[in-house]
TrEMBL record, chain A:
This is ABC transporter permease. Residues 90-280 form the ABC transmembrane type-1 domain. The keyword Ligase does not apply. PANTHER family: D,D-DIPEPTIDE TRANSPORT SYSTEM PERMEASE PROTEIN DDPC-RELATED, OLIGOPEPTIDE TRANSPORT SYSTEM PERMEASE PROTEIN APPC. The keyword Protein transport applies. InterPro entries: BP-dependent_transpt_permease, MetI-like, MetI-like_sf, OppC_N. Belongs to the binding-protein-dependent transport system permease family. The lineage of its organism: Bacteria, Pseudomonadati, Pseudomonadota, Alphaproteobacteria, Rhodospirillales. GO terms for biological process: peptide transport; protein transport; transmembrane transport. Keywords: Cell membrane, Membrane, Peptide transport, Protein transport, Transmembrane, Transmembrane helix, Transport. CDD domains: TM_PBP2. One of its GO terms (cellular component) is plasma membrane.
Automatic annotation (TrEMBL), chain B:
It comes from the Bacteria. The keyword S-adenosyl-L-methionine does not apply. One of its GO terms (molecular function) is ATP hydrolysis activity. Keywords: ATP-binding, Cell membrane, Membrane, Nucleotide-binding, Transport. Its main location: membrane. Residues 5-253, 284-526 form the ABC transporter domain. InterPro entries: AAA+_ATPase, ABC_Ni/Peptide_Import, ABC_transporter-like_ATP-bd, ABC_transporter-like_CS, Oligopep_ABC_C, P-loop_NTPase. One of its GO terms (biological process) is peptide transport. This is ABC transporter ATP-binding protein. It is found in: Cell inner membrane. It holds the Pfam family oligo_HPY. GO terms for cellular component: plasma membrane. PROSITE patterns: ABC_TRANSPORTER_1 (PS00211), ABC_TRANSPORTER_2 (PS50893).
Length: 293, 552
């Protein structure tokens, strides 16, 4: 009865953990990215527990010292420890970017899925709305939103979420659209699922792998965007520790030779963006069940 | 010896270590000969030919063995030398012509590419030569078709373009890998006849790789049967079919639908054909059904005023080639699409009062279910088999999914241990069973079978057809069997409707349609299917007994 039918049964079952390990071992760059990501998350969570100094405490006697055994990343113009400030800033920067990306992912997915599934006038309306956002230079739009709504962390999050929304909406629309008439969507309709159930339970989960790549790339942009806003004086205000502000403040001292003020927060920023950009491929492989064999 | 393959071994590096796809394969090919390589999916028939062309995937390699072509050892050739050879000496025709052609280049330019690549034409002569190549594959109005893009041409035309590209530089060996899979039977006949005529006229040797024994028997001088990466038998078609020595070959021959064979004869050992259910009152009535797509001048009539009935326990076959409107008809009967005109009645009550968009919540949804053509495409890749089968139970019935899923799995012969697998971890036959179990989950009265075996190997097709016949006998459901293949439909159906261009051209009992078709189109359809020479069961039995006698 079973000629080829038993061939699949020989394939051993592996758990999700085994799958993650396989993806990491197959692609060393993904492993590096996951390592960096884990480091960033741990630093963000532990934050205050691992800083050697109070990040806000100034000490005029120790101003502008170069990196040393006492102060690994040196001190700034009012004698605050740069290492502690870089560590503390991780949590704020991560919070802003995660919240902003989560918000644009949720709203963008809903808007894009609806446009992709029903098409017609809904597609036209959401399409033009998204085009309108895309028509602005995105960073200038974010500046405008923060300037108009007020200089707070929440507003940075909203601004970052709004400028990233179109990317999610477009990916979700395209991914849903190609699956709208797929066999499994038809089968789901026959199984008594309503349109919303077909979309939310059957089609959308299949659009997740490419969305994951988008999320990971976007996290990098979101961090850069938040830091950029702070750099030009919008958003987070001194003396709060934030990578963008620290680079902005440190930039004044680079010409006079105190390179460490801008260098270390800039390095942290670079590592974070780098890690998120590399994470994408690995994340896609992990959420795609077809990669599991 | 023109082509001599000796002890070819091909291995693939995969996640579970080295997998050997082809083991110790040896065969030869003379000048002007056509060799058929026949096997089911995973038999290594395509991989062998890719190895000859040296176009294996990056993780595959020729572990050992020799491929000598005209006394040159191809395995020792550098990539540069192989590039010179491909297209000029050996060329290939692929399975899916649309995928093999570049969608954004004119077909004429694609023929020129290969001519220029092998210096058979210059910038100035290329156009003329490309048009000549189009003429050679009998494309009407080649001057005009030169400027066509692949999407403007039908599947059969695209395959002719691919053949034109393959033959443009007069190669001495042509490898055709399932050249007609996915084409209609009438188109298949045209393409295969053309291919046979061109290779004969040019004195070329060719290798035809196919899963279809009938096709190989009709067009090949010699046949090699492969299974699991090994050659199990080879010989001349007549001898092979009359006296298959290998058990697998015998099973393959008996699984191929052919005139005279009953559904139970397809499996080995033969099963008694299950009883046909008693026919009851009319279950489904379709009256003057039409479907028009588009508006005004662009309007296309996909289904044009058709009417038919299905009684309780009856199986009706709906046969036609691609574009005849059979899929549109089944979508409308399934209430996934609203008709432009006409009525569909279930148990004498009209169903068209509830629009298709709202039908998912209608109580009659459970009575109408469907088995889809492509099991892979029709199961959500993120659902396990259990979740896929449980979905309709949860939505359409009051039953507890768990016990019922297992009951259904047992009914369709799916091992319970496989229920927690994802579709990509199941074989084609297992996925087909999941699809059937899901369709039966809501205890439907009418099941539409939309080419349920088109994507399956013949041996699996035989098993699935028998399963469907058993289920019909035990559950008493009615089937609407939609297919392009009259010889498959015949095995299961009481009555057959033949459709062409949205209209019903012939309707009648299975026997009368198969034996005395009145419509010309039905006759063409029947004649176009390649048939293997009949293997006489008695003769086979005698051969086996004789062998056993000698062995003893």
């Amino acid at each position: 009865m079973a000629l080829a039918e038993n061939s699949a049964s020989e394939k051993a079952h592996r758990g999700f953990g085994g799958h993650v390990l396989y993806v990491l071992s197959e692609n060393p760059i993904t492993a590096v990215a996951f390592g960096l990501f884990a480091l960033i998350v741990i630093v963000a969570i532990l934050g205050p527990l691992i800083t050697p100094y109070d990040p806000l405490e100034s000490n005029a006697a120790r101003a502008l010292q170069a990196p040393s055994a006492d102060h690994w990343f040196g001190t700034d113009s009012v004698g605050r420890d740069v290492f502690s400030r870089v560590i503390i800033a991780t949590r704020l920067d991560m919070m802003i970017s995660v919240a902003a990306v989560a918000l644009s992912f949720v709203v963008g997915s809903i808007v894009g899925s609806i446009a992709g599934y029903w098409g017609g006038w809904m597609d036209a309306v959401t399409g033009r709305f998204v085009d309108t956002i895309m028509a602005f230079p995105l960073f200038v739009l974010a500046m405008g939103i923060v300037a108009a709504m007020g200089n707070t962390v929440e507003n940075i999050i909203y601004a970052t979420a709004i400028i990233n929304l179109p990317f999610y909406a477009r990916v979700a629309r395209a991914e849903v659209r190609i699956r709208r008439e797929a066999g499994f969507a038809q089968a789901a309709r026959l199984a008594g699922n309503t349109d919303i159930q077909v979309l939310a339970l059957h089609i959308f989960p299949n659009a997740l792998p490419p969305m994951m790549v988008q999320i990971s790339l976007n996290m990098g942009w979101a961090i850069l965007n938040a830091a950029g806003l702070s750099f030009i004086g919008l958003g987070v205000r001194p003396p709060t520790a934030e990578w963008g502000i620290m680079v902005a403040e440190g930039a004044n001292f680079v010409v006079s030779g105190e390179w460490w003020l801008a260098f270390f927060p800039g390095l942290a920023l670079m590592i974070a963006v780098f890690a998120f950009n590399l994470l994408g491929d690995g994340l896609r492989d992990i959420v795609d069940p077809r990669q599991r064999t | 010896m023109f082509l001599d393959v000796e002890n070819l071994n091909v291995t693939f590096k995969t996640r579970r270590g080295l997998v050997s796809a082809v083991r110790d394969v040896s065969f030869t090919l003379e000048k002007g000969e056509t060799l058929g390589i026949v096997g089911e999916s995973g038999s290594g028939k395509s991989v062998s030919s890719y190895a000859i062309m040296r176009i294996l995937d990056r993780n595959g390699r020729i572990a050992n063995g020799r491929v000598s072509f005209d006394d040159m050892d191809l395995t020792a050739f550098s990539n540069r030398e192989m590039r010179e050879l491909r297209g000029r000496e050996i060329s290939m025709v692929f399975q899916n012509p649309r995928a093999a052609l570049n969608p954004i280049r004119k077909v004429g330019h694609q023929i020129e590419d290969v001519l220029r690549r092998h210096s058979r034409a210059t910038k100035y002569t290329a156009r003329k030569k490309a048009i000549k190549a189009l003429e050679a594959v009998r494309i009407s109005d080649p001057e005009k078709r030169y400027d066509a893009y692949p999407f403007e041409l039908s599947g059969g035309m695209c395959q002719r373009i691919v053949i034109a590209i393959a033959l443009a530089c007069d190669p001495r060996l042509l490898i055709a890998d399932e050249p007609t899979t996915g084409l209609d039977v009438t188109t298949q006949k045209v393409v295969m006849d053309l291919l046979a005529e061109l290779t004969t006229r040019r004195g070329m040797s060719s290798i035809l790789i196919t899963h279809d024994l009938g096709l190989a028997a009709e067009y090949c001088d010699r046949i090699v049967v492969m299974k699991d990466g090994e050659i199990v038998e080879q010989g001349k078609p007549d001898a092979l079919f009359a006296r298959p020595a290998n058990a697998y070959t015998r099973r393959l021959i008996s699984a191929t639908p052919r005139p005279g064979a009953e559904i139970g004869d397809l499996v080995d050992p033969p099963l008694p054909s299950p009883p046909r259910p008693e026919l009851g009152a009319p279950l489904l009535q379709v009256k003057n059904l039409s479907k028009v797509f588009g508006h005004g001048d662009d309007a296309v009539t996909a289904v044009d005023d058709i009417s038919f009935d299905i009684r309780e326990g009856e199986t009706l076959g709906l046969v036609g080639e691609s574009g005849c409107g059979k899929s549109t008809t089944s979508s409308m009967v399934m209430r996934l699409m609203d008709p432009s005109n006409g009525e569909i009645l279930l148990n004498g009550k009209p169903m068209t009062d509830v629009p298709a968009a709202k039908f998912a919540r209608d109580p009659r949804r459970a009575s109408l279910q469907m088995v889809f053509q492509d099991a892979t495409d029709s199961i959500n890749p993120r659902f396990t088999a259990r979740q896929a089968i449980a979905d309709p139970i949860r939505r359409l019935t009051d039953e507890k999914p768990n016990g019922r899923v297992e009951e259904l799995a047992t009914q369709v012969g799916l091992p319970l241990t496989l229920l927690d697998r994802f579709p990509h971890q199941l074989s084609g036959g297992q996925k087909a069973r999941v699809g059937i179990a899901r369709a039966l989950a809501s205890r439907p009265k009418l099941l539409i079978l939309d080419e349920p075996t088109a994507a399956l190997d013949v041996s699996i097709q035989a098993v699935v057809l028998n399963l469907l016949a058993e289920l019909r006998a035990s559950l008493g459901v009615s089937y609407l069997f939609v297919s392009h293949d009259l010889h498959v439909v015949r095995l299961l159906c009481d009555r057959i409707i033949v459709m062409r261009k949205g209209r019903i051209v012939e309707e009648g009992d299975t026997a009368s349609i198969m034996d005395n078709p009145t419509d010309d189109y039905t006759k063409t359809l029947l004649a176009a299917t390649p048939m293997a020479p009949r293997a006489d069961r008695d003769e086979v039995d005698i051969a086996i007994t004789a062998k056993q006698a000698i062995a003893e």
